[in-house]
Amino acid sequence: MRKTKEPDTKLLTLPGRPVLICCTMDDGNMQVLVENGTYSEPGAWGVVLADVIHHVANAYGQDGLDRDKVYAEIRNILVQEITKPTSEVVFLGKLEY
Question: Is the pLDDT of residue 20 over 90?
């Protein structure tokens, strides 16, 4: 089992409020917290998720991988996962402040 490193606490002091938090648990499962009251149009989440993909691809690019290949791989797997999820998604509740 892979241990995750602790998040950078500087991120917790950014202005604004989180709308999406993803945490990989020690058992390998993922917990996703969503603040769904942020956007009046649900389609705005498409922009958010696209931005996340670009940021992830850029981060891998900073680590020396080909950013465009990383982006294409993420996009391809995203489409597959949207079409046919490999795991059940269970709603546990809303992110509240």
Answer: no
